[in-house]
Amino acid sequence: MITMTRSFPAPRSLLLGTGGYVPEQVVTNGDLERLVETSDAWIQERTGIRERRKASDQEAASDMATAAARKALEMAGISASELSMIIVGTISADQPLPACAVHVQRNLGVTSIPAFDIAAACAGFLYGMSIADQFVARGQAKYVLVIGVELLTRLMNWNDRTTCVLFGDGAGAVVIGPNAEAKDRTARGILSTCLFSDGSQADALCIPAGGSREPLTTEGIEQRRNKVHMEGREIFKNAVRNLVSSSINALEQAGVSAGEITWVVAHQANLRILAQVAQRLEVPMDKFILNIERYGNTSSASIPLALDEGVRDGRIKPGDLLLMTALGAGLSWGSAVVRY
Ligand SMILES: CC(C)(COP(=O)(O)OP(=O)(O)OC[C@H]1O[C@@H](n2cnc3c(N)ncnc32)[C@H](O)[C@@H]1OP(=O)(O)O)[C@@H](O)C(=O)NCCC(=O)NCCS
Global pTM? Predict the structure, then answer.
């Protein structure tokens, strides 16, 4: 476990801008009824998802990531040439090699800064934000672009109703920069982050083939072993427990109580998971910024997309206290408390 507590009282890095992007094509539950044995009623009742977005054949993850990044840079009032680092949370990069982040870097016309991917699945954005926070707070980086992007519709087995109804495509981005005027914990910025993984659960959510353990073969492709496999029930139980415990951890590190939280910006895998998290943290559901109904599970994009929507529609205001929490394949999970 890694928890990042400030040894000083004031937050040193803050969110300067947010951006989001979703592809145009909408795939409704009704569309999926024509593909697999499922129903709109089952999907809505068991997950809270009504529709999701699907990237066009011409779009790759870095295209979506770049679109979200440009919006975040614009809101931050920062030009791409001022960036010190680009971090992308993704498991659906354009290619196995090189990183999605260098494609974003090229799209933005930037050179000579580090650009790398984080493979922490749905927790990828939180991992990236935590790393950015360390560099900015220590003064080793000024402006860091952190992106969560997933093009998961390309990684689905469209014959498997237990996974294909859940996921969607999208990207979200933030620009993190120094908070020169921070005096105490009431100042705006990242107050705490905590990260965890448990490799004993690695098989519960995975893509079995296509790596060095099981290189891709024709047989593997036929058996869809290059697509997402998930033990949903197992993940569900772990998700509720770990999202709650890491949230409590992040709140304690930040020195705030759950009751003080203005908005919860959580990874959105299943509305029932979030309802149980809300109940255990004793935070009402109307404090959650939700997008699962429209976008499904967009993995690492889910938190920055929801954040961007909340900021742009005026729900999230400067000074609001945000709790972020995510869990995904690994298992990897984490939480953060941010005064926006
Ligand atoms: C996947 C998930 C939605 C399944 O919901 P669930 O309520 O746990 O459903 P179960 O897996 O217990 O399955 C119940 C039944 O519904 C069926 N079912 C599964 N998917 C279905 C679908 N799309 N449509 C209709 N029926 C479906 C199952 O086959 C099972 O049928 P059976 O009882 O005849 O065996 C849920 O487990 C989940 O959200 N898991 C966590 C996902 C997650 O957090 N992932 C990590 C982050 S990416």
Answer: 0.95
